Amino acid sequence: MMQFFSNVDWYDIWMATLDTLLMLGGSMLFTVLLGLPLGIVLFMTGPKQMFEQKGIYALLSFCVNVLRSLPFIILLIVMIPMTLMITGTSLGVAGAIPPLVAGATPFFARLVETALREVDRGIIEATQAMGASTRQIITHALLPEARPGIIAATTVTAITLVSYTAMAGVVGAGGLGDLAIRYGYQRFQTDVMIVTVVLLLILVQILQSLGDRLVVHYSRK
C-alpha cells in the first residue's frame, strides 16, 4: 500500500489542503457579505414585491445572469488584471479569492432571492400592518422565515466554491487542485491525483452534512 503512495508528499498535501480551506473560507465570507444584500435587493425590487422597480431589477438580473453563465475558468483569466489591482498578485490564495467571489456571489444571490420568495406573503403583510419599517421587515420577518433556505443556499454555494478552488489551480492559485494538476496530471502521478480527489470529496461531504444539520435544526423552530 505504501509503495502505491510513493509519490505522495504528505507535507505538500497538508499545505495544499490548508490553502484550499483558506480559499474556501475567505471567498465564502465575502460571497455571503456581498451576495446576501444583493439577493435581498433582487427580491425587494422584483415583480409584485413591495419595492418593485422593473428597471433596477432588470439591470441587476442581467448582471447576475451574465456572471453566472460565464465559465469559471474563463472568469479566472479575464479577471487577472483586476485581481492584480486588488491583491497585487494573481497567484496563490490571495490571487484566487477575487475571481472566486466574483463567480460565487451572483450564484448565491440568486439562491437567496429564491429562498426569500418562499416566505409566506401573509407574514410580510402582517409585519407591514404593524407599522414595521423596511429594515424591520427584512430583519424580523424575511430573513428569520427564510433562514433554512438561506442556509441551504450557503451550503450549495460552499460546495460550488470547492470545485472552483480546484479549477483555480490551473492559474497557479495553489490548493489541492493545483497539486492534482501539477503532479497528478502533468507528471502522471496517479496516487497524488487519487489523494487530492478523495480529500476534496471528504470536504464536500463534511460541508453537506453540516448544512443539512443546520437546515433541520432551524426548520424545527
**Shape category:** elongated
Spans of 5+ residues with little confidence (pLDDT < 50)? none
Order of helical and strand elements = HHHHHHHHH
Number of strands: 0
> Helices and strands: which structural class?
mainly alpha
Largest sheet properties: none
The helical percent reads over 70%
| Relative strand content | under 5%
Q: What average pLDDT do the residues reach?
A: 87
Gyration radius, to the nearest Å?
20 Å
Number of helices: 9
Task: Report the end-to-end length measured between terminal Cα atoms.
Answer: 49 Å
Q: Quick summary of this structure?
A:
The chain contains 9 helices and no strands. The protein has helices at residues 10-44, 54-69, 72-78, 80-87, 92-117, 121-129, 134-168, 175-185, 190-219.
Structure characterization notes:
Helix 1 packs across helix 8 (175-185), helix 2 (54-69) crosses helix 5 and helix 5 crosses helix 7. The mean pLDDT is 87. The longest helix is centred in the N-terminal third of the chain and has 35 residues, at 10-44. Helix content is 80%, strand content 0%. The protein is mostly helical and 221 residues long. It is built from nine helices and no strands.
